[in-house]
Amino acid sequence: MSIMKNSVKTILGALMLTLFVSSAALAQTGTPVTADEQEIPQQQKQEITAEELPDPVADAIVTSDYAEWEINEAYMVSESNEITYEVTFVNPQGQTETETYDKNGKVIDA
Fold first, then answer.
1. Which of 3, 29, 69, 78 would you label with 46, given CA atoms 20 to 30 Å apart?
2. C-alpha distance from residue 18 to each of 27, 48, 107 (Å)
3. What is the tens place of the pLDDT at every residue in 31-79?
4. Closest alpha carbon to 80 in 36, 43, 34
5. 86: helix, strand or coil
6. Closest listed residue to residue 100, CA positions, set 110, 91, 81, 90
7. Do residues 103 and 81 touch, judged by C-beta distance below 8 A?
8. 103: which residues sit within 8 A by CB, 6+ positions away?
């Protein structure tokens, strides 16, 4: 009889654990999330080399205040179907400045 009681307790314990895990899983799913509610990355940023900058951007840099500065980093940024170029310059003293250009080489104010 003792073995039967232990078996029943074990089965009931396993059943209760299964129910608990199932209810926890159901509670986490909740209501479906629509596309509007999902967090969708709005911006993609890809590091590129200075040589990969489009000619209009490179031409704008050559005639800018940063013409004598070194290009430290350059990124192509895609946001809402628009591409911009974020360029970080560094001077010999180690000072850095970042400018953002559109595809035509126009500086975009931040």
1. 69
2. 14, 52, 61
3. 554 444 445 456 799 999 999 999 999 999 999 999 999 999 999 999 9
4. 43
5. strand
6. 110
7. no
8. 54, 56, 57, 83, 84, 85
